[in-house]
Structure formats: C-alpha cells, structure tokens
Amino acid sequence: MAKQIIHTEQAPAAIGPYSQAVRAGDTLYLSGQIPLVPGTGELVTGDIQIQARQVFSNLAAVAEAAGGDLGDLVKLNIFLTDLAHFPLVNEVMAETFVEPYPARAAIGVAALPKGAEIEMDAIMVLGD
C-alpha cells in the first residue's frame, strides 16, 4: 500500500524529521501538534484552554489538507505536563466535537517540545 505525505502551510511546520501526517489507505496518522502558531512557529501563550484550542486548530488544518475534518478522528491522544488541566481540556474538547466522540487517552508527561504544556496526536479514517 502506498503512503501519501500530507503537508499544509495552515499548520505549523514539523520541528523535526517527521511529516505533519501520513495517509495509508483510508487511514490518516496525524503527528503530534503543540500550540504553535502556523507561520511564526511561536508558542501560544495563555491558559491551557487557549493552548488546547490552538492544538485543535492545527490538527484540523492537517485533517482538512487530507480531505477530512476533526469529525473523522477515531483516536486522539492528549499529552499534558499537568494533569490538573484535564477538566479544562475536556471543556475545550466538548466545544470542538459532537457525539460520537473519538476514542481518547490523556497522558501525563514530564515535558514536551519547546516547553509546551499540551500536545495531541490523532488517527482518522477518511471516507469516500
């Protein structure tokens, strides 16, 4: 099965040797996104909800570049440097998604790239 690399200027450029997303068949694997502003590469400042909204915006841009949207997500991983932010991120997720929700994991981590407080990666399935 051929794989297709997905790239968009509407999401932050990769900060390492990886692709924004890779499509294999109808499955799209979205790389981790932190709250970077596309174009500037600057980390969004503000509370965790502002940061989470930026991460969802970045994921949405990559999903759209592949011909889908966040509604096509089947699995979402959320990495937080402070699990006390979990309820606030849940509020943003409730604003962003409608049922049926994707499967999800929330994982506490010691640190994230560029000092970010949140990172998310996802898997989505694209329909015809």
Short description:
This protein has 128 residues and is α+β, with helices and mostly antiparallel strands. The chain is built from 2 helices and 6 strands; from the N terminus they run E-E-E-H-E-H-E-E. The longest helix is centred in the middle third of the chain and has 18 residues, at 48-65.
Topology readout:
Layout: E1 3-6, E2 21-24, E3 27-33, H1 48-65, E4 73-80, H2 86-96, E5 103-108, E6 118-125
Parallel strand pairs: 4-5
Antiparallel strand pairs: 1-2, 2-3, 3-6, 4-6
Helix pairs in contact: 1-2
Any overview of this molecule?
It is a single chain. This protein is an alpha+beta fold. It has a single domain (3-125), classed as 60s Ribosomal Protein L30, Chain: A. It has helices spanning 48-65, 86-96; strands spanning 3-6, 21-24, 27-33, 73-80, 103-108, 118-125. The protein has a 6-stranded mixed beta sheet, with helices on one face. Helix 2 (86-96) links the parallel strand 4 and strand 5. Helix 1 packs across helix 2 (86-96). The longest helix has 18 residues, at 48-65. The radius of gyration is 14 Å and the shape is globular. The protein starts with a strand and ends with a strand. The model has no long low-confidence stretch (mean pLDDT 96).
| CATH homology superfamily name | RutC-like
Helix content: 10-25%
Tally of individual helices: 2
CATH architecture: 2-Layer Sandwich
What is the helix/strand order? EEEHEHEE
- Low-pLDDT residue spans: none
CATH class categorisation: Alpha Beta
Q: Which structural class matches the secondary elements?
A: alpha+beta
Q: Give the percentage of residues in beta strands.
A: 25-35%
CA-based gyration radius: 14 Å
User: What is the fold named in CATH at topology level?
Assistant: 60s Ribosomal Protein L30, Chain: A
What is the first-to-last residue Cα distance? 17 Å
Largest sheet: 6 strands, mixed
Strand order of the largest sheet: 1-2-3-6-4-5
